[in-house]
Amino acid sequence: MILSHMTIYGCPKCGEFVSKTSPSSSYRSTGIRFTDGKLRGLDAIHDYIVNECKKCGHLFWIKDDYKIGVYDFGPFGRKDEEGNKALEAKVPNMGFVSSARLPDIYGLHRMLATGDFTGKKQEIYLRKNLHWSFNDRYWDLRVLFLKDGDQEIWEENLKALIPLIRFRYKDTLYLAEIYRNLGKFYRARWVLLRAVLPSMKNAREVIWHECKKKNSFLVPYGKGKLNEYYVDGYPDYVQVDKGKILNGK
Which branch of life, at top level (predicted)? Predict the structure, then answer.
């Protein structure tokens, strides 16, 4: 993978450094797209904008207020040497700075329960990633619920997502998948009737087929591609205005 730049942030509670790397514009993942919209694979890049501090465990939104600086890798021959040296002086052992990591299922649930978000887009971001975290667990372990209360968190989160995305056409496939995950197969197929764009065809057919089988669990459906219908949750590296989400707009 050819990297473009790395941005260093500091935890607002303890100051621990955390990094976010961005690939060059030519990067394309070879991961697999799943019915929940997320791209999964060893080279899938997840550009998280919430972080759990490795040192103190603080959960926070990664935003410019906490930015220390940007390291330029100069993937096409141009590199900001002066800026890089200035950042290296601020951040010792920069090569060992940990990457941003998404809070786990219970951390995301805690952020939602305490209202640690601003506006609809931030809430959708947290809820989608909570949904995907459960599905990651299922895909890795073939078990969806591990602790008492997990099923309640899962169902409450999916039900809360429905009114947030119900009228957003780009989330038609995702809405159908939520109903399927809840076991509401007829409702899911009814929603799929709205998914008429050619780019929705593959996922629509797979979700429809799984509804007929009465399967409510996650399934893969194709190779990874940039997909505009899942942009708000950042399932992979896509170009969007993250500032709008961080500002809750």
Answer: Bacteria
